[in-house]
Specification:
The complex is a heterodimer of chains A (869) and B (142).
Chain A (H helix, E strand, L loop, with lengths): L9 H10 L3 H20 L6 H13 L8 H9 L3 H14 L6 H13 L4 H14 L2 H14 L5 H17 L4 H11 L5 H17 L1 H24 L7 E2 L2 E2 L1 H15 L3 H17 L5 H16 L4 H15 L4 H17 L1 H5 L2 H8 L4 H14 L5 H14 L2 H18 L3 H15 L5 H13 L4 H14 L4 H20 L14 H13 L5 H17 L4 H9 L7 H16 L1 H7 L8 H8 L20 H17 L9 H5 L20 H6 L25 H9 L1 H5 L9 H6 L10 H4 L5 E5 L3 E10 L2 E13 L5 E9 L4 E5 L14 E10 L9 E9 L2 E9 L7
Antiparallel strand pairs in A: 1-2, 3-4, 4-5, 5-8, 6-9, 7-8, 9-10
Helix pairs in contact in A: 1-2, 2-3, 3-5, 4-5, 4-6, 5-7, 6-7, 6-8, 7-9, 8-9, 9-11, 10-11, 10-12, 11-12, 11-13, 12-13, 12-14, 13-14, 13-15, 14-16, 15-16, 15-17, 16-17, 17-20, 19-20, 20-22, 21-22, 21-23, 22-23, 23-25, 24-26, 24-32, 25-26, 26-27, 26-28, 27-28, 28-29, 28-30, 28-31, 29-30, ...
Chain B lengths: L1 E8 L4 E6 L5 H16 L8 E4 L2 E8 L2 E7 L5 H18 L5 H6 L1 H11 E2 L2 E2 L4 H14 L1
Antiparallel strand pairs in B: 1-2, 1-5, 3-4, 4-5, 6-7
The chains are: A alpha+beta (869), B alpha+beta (142).
């Protein structure tokens, strides 16, 4: 016998592990034990197999690897005795799960045990099957389980019923085999069998419509009777829980009735009486009773209309809601969310109580209540409810503020009766919890502000007030700084004062002060600082008297270590200093932003591509400068930790003719503006086919960033002739006047684009580019266009290539493809051709999508790649 | 359906872990750690329900032990609460006045009892008496 394995008993091992004072000691003990067990395994020691498996289970529970014991489980299961089998099955369920290949080996043992004469062994096998069986095992062993549903011993029948649930969940096709035997289980008297039988029937109904039909026809009355008998049954000590006979069976039956009654008037009618009885007669002072009432309410809410019962149910929920027990209030809130679709008036009556729950100290309750309040809000109650929520925002716990803020913002956006209210509420939220507000929310606020021209003065004055008191809220400061930059003159001149406003006297230098404080605040991030610089530039135009001071502030950032800020500072200060004559045009107010476009973008749909018509005249200055610093900026942009709002804002400021391909605004906005760029933060760039080359925005159409990099890596070759050295930014800005912008597209179109695939419903085009110095690798920009009038969802493109090619797919820009070519999806593919020059590219592709919820699959082979790839 | 059952002490040591859905070992440890953190510091007056990823955990504390069930979001929370209590009563009956050490040294027995109580993530038997008797019969077979 092995010298180790004679060692410790299970108890002793546990004791010595518990005695360990450090993790290292524990590891040492475990290592020793594992070594002993391994040795015993390799000697095929049968005397201690039982003990070793038990030890392994304990070791497994502590989190140590035990895979070497898996085969021991199988051996133990295969041995004839009950104790060995028992420990073997137990260890099997603990150490393995359905994904392990080893499990397949046990199928045969289980099959034999299911047919064993000893019913206890049958029970073991069923238990293991129910807990870990895989789809293959389910298929193999379903007939045995089906047979065991009629076994003489009820203990086996109930286990078989639960096994059957697992089997049909794994292999839904097998459901029909179990319909009849499941129905006969409902005629049993044994509670365990009934409980599991009802559960099996419920699950069968969810899987198979045939089963649902069958049970509805044959078992509705029987189930109603079962529930009635149970509800009226005399005291039965065995199943009694706080005065109620088997609440678990009650609940299973109510759930089954719910499935039967849903969508069927006759079935619903036949259960009305018993539901009314359960709803009125069940004791509600103990948890068990409440659990039944809760399930009963759920059933009443789901079955076909019976207004009397619903009143009863809503009343129960009302009682629950005022219960002192938090658990009961929680389930009430949960159920009221369902009730709201049935009878929203009744739920509205509990509004005040629900609102109180939003302020509960328990996060679970708060979360439920907030969801519910969100559903309760409509046009008529939005004002008082929003006020309550915003008031609560002030005192709420920090970890809840994120959720709360998001919900308030969403409510305000959805239901605002007018713009002034919207702006007021948003300013309140921003000043209370500005740090929790998501980017798209404050972007939306800016869009609304620009559209409310009569409120510009009012807004900027309100912002001026709140930024002074709540300057630590990042997003508030951003919105404030943006508005002060845009509407600073209105702030000082008191333009458009509304009668509700208190008079406010602001001097020009007060306005500059605000921005200066914001930019100097140590916690201000890059985006905020960059926005402050832009605001300062704008203010220098609005307040010529302050321009010297502004220039001083801007100058402080000339030495900023953040390139983005440094560049802005240098360029802006040149503008302020040396170009007073063009400054006023540069800093003109932003054009109004198109709300529809923006909300469309937020909703995820991509509006039509930018058309060429809105491109500003091409004869504006500094085309040459643009070419060189654009790649630089973009390159920097890639490295900037946060997306910066406007890499190219200085170009905009000096009116460069760049069409804002990254952000398609409404057609009437001729030139790019800062805000549209701001608004693109965090949203994937819209794919479009603008004919104007825009190397300023990264990841755009055909010219993807690769081209930009491309240029950067070999600027001398491509653009040197046109561009003066970039030593002085001023030179960059102003030199090259009259130079028309070079067309960087030249760099990207060495290979012609192809239509890779075209069917009646879909067109796929490929644009090619190469990285310099790496001729083997081709970058393909695939564009998908929908030719039908239905939009596609769940769009997925798959490609396969032969072995000499390596394919890498980047994520697609979207998985929704709007109809009629109103936008496209783009996806980048990188192909490395190991036989470059010998073999050309070839690819098989498959495209799957859903049209009107129907799945469509298109396949094709692409072999007409341009030569030389 | 019950996704998994955990029995942990206040320090976060797992005394029993039964999974009815397949999970990687590393994922199991993560789940155990997260569930423990979720439940251990909750005020006793709070609800016994916490949302956990896309499911919810119904837990109940007995002395220093936390019994946690992870169930579907649509399941009846109150019923599972009752279910935990019934399981504890069965353990209490079986070990006559159960304590944590009983569960440590007889961990395999606890699993066997659980297998008579819950199977495939569903309740199998609701009678305390029936389960205790069945355990007796099984012990006799050994």
């Amino acid at each position: 016998m092995n010298p180790f394995s004679s060692g410790t008993r299970l108890r002793d091992m546990i004791r010595s592990i518990r005695a360990c004072k450090t993790a290292a000691e524990e590891r040492a003990v475990i290592r020793k034990e594992c070594a002993a067990i391994r040795a015993a395994i390799s000697e095929n020691d049968q005397d201690y197999r039982h003990r070793n498996l038990a030890k392994l289970m304990f070791i497994h529970m502590l989190g140590y690897p035990t895979h070497f014991g898996q085969m021991e489980c199988l051996k133990s299961i295969a041995s004839p005795g009950f104790p060995e089998k028992r420990i073997g099955y137990l260890a099997l369920m603990l150490l393995l799960d359905e994904r392990q290949e080893v499990l397949m080996l046990v199928t045969n043992s289980i099959k034999q045990d299911l047919n064993h004469t000893n019913q206890y062994i049958v029970g073991l096998a069923l238990c293991a099957l129910g807990n870990i069986c895989s789809a293959e095992m389910a298929r193999d062993l379903a007939p045995e389980v089906e047979r065991l549903l009629q076994f003489r011993d009820p203990n086996i029948r109930k286990k078989a019923a639960l096994c059957a649930i697992r089997i049909v969940k794994k292999v839904p096709d097998l459901a029909e085999n179990f319909i009849n035997p499941a129905a006969s289980l409902l005629k049993e008297k044994h509670h365990g069998v009934l409980l599991t039988g009802v559960q099996l029937c419920t699950d069968l109904c969810k899987i198979s419509d045939d089963a649902l039909e069958y049970f509805r026809k044959k078992c509705t009355d029987g189930s109603v009777k079962l529930l009635r008998d149970l509800a009226n049954s005399p005291y039965a000590p065995e199943y009694d829980i706080s005065g109620i006979a088997d609440p678990f069976l009650h609940i299973r039956l109510l759930k089954f009735l719910r499935v039967l009654g849903q969508g069927n008037v006759d079935a619903s009618d036949s259960m009305n009486d018993i539901l009314a009885q359960v709803a009125t007669k069940t004791e509600s002072n103990k948890n068990a009773g409440n659990a039944i009432l809760y399930e009963c309410v759920a059933t009443i809410m789901s079955i076909e209309d019976s207004s009397g019962l619903r009143v009863l149910a809503i009343n129960i929920l009302g009682r629950f809601l005022s219960n002192r027990d938090n658990n009961i209030r929680y389930v009430a809130l949960n159920m009221l969310m369902k009730a709201i679709t049935v009878d929203s008036q009744a739920v509205q009556r509990h509004r005040t109580t629900i609102l109180e729950c939003v302020k509960d100290s328990d996060a679970s309750i708060r979360k439920r209540a907030l969801e519910l309040v969100y559903l309760l809000i409509n046009e008529s109650n939005v004002k008082p409810l929003t006020k309550e929520l915003i008031d609560y925002l002030e005192v709420s716990e920090p970890e809840f503020r994120g959720d709360l803020t998001a919900k308030i913002c969403s409510i305000v956006e959805r239901f605002s009766p007018d713009k002034i209210w919207y702006i007021d509420q948003m300013l309140k939220v921003l000043s209370e919890a500005g740090n929790y507000v998501k980017d798209d929310v404050w972007h939306a606020l800016i869009v609304v502000i620009t559209n409310a021209s009569h409120l510009h003065g009012y807004t900027v004055r309100s912002l001026f007030r709140v930024v002074q008191t709540a300057g630590d809220q990042e997003t508030l400061v951003r919105v404030g700084v943006w508005c002060i930059g845009e509407y600073g003159d209105m702030l000082v001149n008191n333009t458009g004062v509304l009668h509700i406003e208190e008079p406010l006297t602001v001097t020009e230098s007060d306005a500059v002060d605000i921005v200066e404080t914001a930019i100097k605040r140590h916690s201000a991030d890059l985006t905020t600082r960059a926005m402050c610089l832009v605001a300062l530039l704008k203010l220098s135009g609005r307040f010529p008297a302050c321009s010297q001071r502004i220039n001083d502030i801007v100058n402080q950032y000339k030495g900023s270590l953040v390139l983005e800020l440094q560049q802005r500072a240098i360029e802006f200060s040149s503008v302020v200093d040396k170009h007073k004559n063009i400054r006023s045009t540069l800093v003109e107010r932003m054009p109004v932003l198109d709300e529809d476009t923006f909300s469309g973008r937020r909703a995820g749909s991509v509006p039509a591509a930018v058309s060429t018509s809105k491109v500003a005249p091409l004869d504006l200055p500094n085309g040459g400068g643009k070419v060189i610093d654009a790649p630089l900026i973009d390159l920097l942009g890639f490295d900037v930790p946060e997306p910066t709002p406007d890499h190219d804002n200085h170009h905009n400021l000096i009116n460069v003719n760049v069409s804002p391909t990254s952000s398609p605004p409404g057609p009437n906005h001729a030139h790019n503006d800062l805000l549209m760029d701001l608004l693109t933060i965090g949203t994937p760039p819209a794919q479009n086919s603008s004919s104007v080359p825009d190397i300023l925005s990264p990841n755009q159409d055909k010219l993807s960033s690769i081209n930009i990099l491309d240029q950067l890596s070999s600027p001398a070759a491509s653009v040197e002739g046109k561009i003066p050295p970039a030593s002085s930014p001023m030179l960059d800005l102003m030199d090259g006047f009259g130079d028309s912008p070079s067309n960087p597209q030249d760099n990207g179109s060495a290979y012609p684009s192809i239509t890779a695939f075209e069917s009646s419903s879909l067109r796929v085009t490929f644009n090619f580019s190469k990285q310099p110095g790496n001729p083997q690798t081709t970058i393909i920009e695939a564009n998908f266009e929908n030719k039908t009038s239905n939009s596609y969802t769940d769009f997925i493109f798959q490609a396969a290539v032969p072995k000499f090619l390596q394919l890498h797919l980047d994520p697609a820009s979207s998985n929704v493809l709007p109809s009629n070519g109103n936008g496209s999806i783009s996806q980048r593919l990188r192909i490395t051709n190991s036989q470059h020059g010998k073999k050309s590219l070839v690819m098989k592709m498959r495209i799957g999508y859903k049209m009107n919820n129907k799945e469509v699959l298109e396949e094709g082979q692409i072999s007409k790649f341009p030569p030389g790839l | 359906m019950i996704r998994f059952i955990l029995l942990q002490n206040r320090q976060g040591k797992t005394r029993l872990a039964k999974y009815y859905i397949p999970l990687e070992e590393s994922e199991k440890h993560k789940v155990e750690y997260e569930v423990h953190r979720l439940v251990v510091n909750r005020d006793p007056k709070f609800t016994n329900f916490v949302e956990f990823r896309t499911h919810k955990v119904i837990y109940r504390r007995y002395a220093g032990l936390f019994f946690s069930l992870c169930v579907d979001i649509t399941d009846n929370e109150l019923a599972y609460l009752e279910c935990i209590h019934l399981f504890v009563e069965i353990l209490d009956h079986f070990f006559s006045n159960v304590c944590e050490l009983d569960l440590v040294f007889n961990f395999h027995k606890v699993y066997l009892i659980l297998d008579e109580f819950i199977l495939a993530g569903e309740l199998q038997e609701t009678s305390k008496k029936a389960i205790i008797e069945r355990m007796g019969e099984l012990e006799k077979q050994e």
